Amino acid sequence: MVAAIRFSHVGEPDVLAVQTLVEQVPGHGEVWLEQAAIGVNFLDVTQRKGAVPVALPSGLGLEGAGRVAAVGEGVSNVQVGDRVAYATGPVGAYASARLFPAQRLVRIPDALSFDDAAAVLFKGITAQYLLKSTYPVGPGTTVLLYGVAGGVGAIMATWAKHLGATVIGVVSRQASVAKAKALGCDEVLVFDPDTLASQVADVTNGRKVDVVYDPIGRVSFQASLDSLRPRGVMVSFGASSGAPAPVEIATLNAKGSLFLTRPSLAAHTASDAEYQERAQDVLAAVEAGIITPHIWARYPLAEAALAHADLESGRSSGAIILKP
């Protein structure tokens, strides 16, 4: 039998419940995957709360790692016994086993544990497209990056430094400053929406930054815009504090012909080829020591609600994974 987390209505973490399902036979292009580790991401929280709608009742989760237990017709890229991971839909990763489209599986090296694969692939691909496609970061780039103490932020900070950028990290509390500096941030600021932009101006000698990576949303949006140099790029890729208020187009002009974008992982992994290319870049970066999976906590699958509560509390400092 299969244990899976399901929810029938949106709400607080306690809407998540364990259900027992039967094993399924993979159809054409599918595999039956026995999972060893499942990644928890803030997108899961927004889906559970209804900010990002999913058809209910539903499973949850977009990231996992395990072994292929059975393959359906037409599958040629993986075989039974292969160690694999994934970082995109369909939703339903919070389960001990599941069906999954074979073309969206990524074979992982023996040196990478299932736990580390589930902790790094979704966050790593997010960092990869943000740093290499949304705004090509390189030598001379100055970056303002929120959430450096978190899972995505930690990966982005070290990868951006490897690419040659100057990184100004933003953390939510003083206790996270030391970790942000250890990750390579050139400057670390404790978030205050009223003073952040002036602090950024001070540490950059008035130039401000080329690009802001902001997963916070409503409470940080204005400070982020005000931290950009003329023709800088505002990247709003999350909304942990709620969606930002609508922006008047004239505001971007008045603040120096700014660029504003709201990218998504789905749009940057829409084709199997692009998805695999980005995933392989992440795995190569892990192998080279450019980025390092960091697991803050492991929870039994049945305690998914507690994992969500801890993630939302802001206590976490790294990736959270579930263990079936």
UniProtKB/TrEMBL annotation:
CDD domains: QOR2 (cd05286). One of its GO terms (molecular function) is quinone reductase (NADPH) activity. It is an enzyme of class 1 (oxidoreductase). InterPro entries: ADH-like_C (IPR013149), ADH-like_N (IPR013154), ER (IPR020843), GroES-like_sf (IPR011032), NAD(P)-bd_dom_sf (IPR036291), QOR-like (IPR047618). It catalyses: 2 a quinone + NADPH + H(+) = 2 a 1,4-benzosemiquinone + NADP(+). Pfam families: ADH_N, ADH_zinc_N. GO terms for cellular component: cytosol. Residues 11-322 form the Enoyl reductase (ER) domain. Keywords: NADP, Oxidoreductase. Its EC number is 1.6.5.5. Belongs to the zinc-containing alcohol dehydrogenase family. Quinone oxidoreductase subfamily. This is NADPH:quinone reductase.
